[in-house]
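Hello again, I could really use a second opinion on something today. I've been puzzling over a protein and I'd love to understand its fold better. I'm sending you its amino acid sequence along with the backbone structure tokens. It would help a lot if you went through both lines with me. I've dropped the whole record in just underneath, so have a look.
***
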Amino acid sequence: MNKHLALLRNSCRRGIRQILAATFLFAASLGTAAEIQALDDIRSQAEEFVISRLNLDPADLDVQADPLDVRLRLAKCTDKTEAYIQDGQRLTSRVAVGIRCLDNTSRWSIFVPVSITHYARVVVSARHLPRGQAINKDDITLERRAITRLHGQYLTQAAEVVGQLPKQRLEKGKIVSPRMLKRQNLVKRGQNVIILAEKSLIQVRSKGVALANGQIGERIRVRNTVTKKIVEGTVTSDGYVKILL
């Protein structure tokens, strides 16, 4: 009895496999008989859509749509296809772009995952930089790096870094971010400074004493040692404060 049941099961399995194979061949013949949408065209449209929405220099972008399943069979869209993203979706490092066919006779829709990498020339440490030592122009360089995941934590101008102090040791090749730096005081409270008083093309120098610490670009109060008058000016460099008359 068991032997007959085993033979019956094997016969059923062979029959099911034959039916499935015949169904697959039939579906394949239908797919080849009708025109199908090129998968590369779908991927290209998704990539072009992302690039157009980012409004950035294409040379600074690497946009790659994921490969689509080669078994996918979509009727060729004779009218037009439309690319879109869902409401509220942001174009970050990864996004799903919808592509849909608007034909009256053949409507379909598919989502294509797209990876986005944004590049920019950013400030990078050219050598090992010790903590607390003022950075000079030879300590840094500009390199093209991927910044997609940095969320704004990078600098693009050497002038933004020179003269600042690393809060920690920076290894060679490290992207320098604002969080890693602190400005040094170019003027210290009680320090003798030079007051540069400017009006149009006229510049007058006088001696003064700083009444507060000051970083470059910061406004501090200074007492003129001759007139004893207290004025407010901007720290322009080490030991110099500029005021406008």
User: Anything to note?
Assistant: The first helix runs from residue 2 to 33.
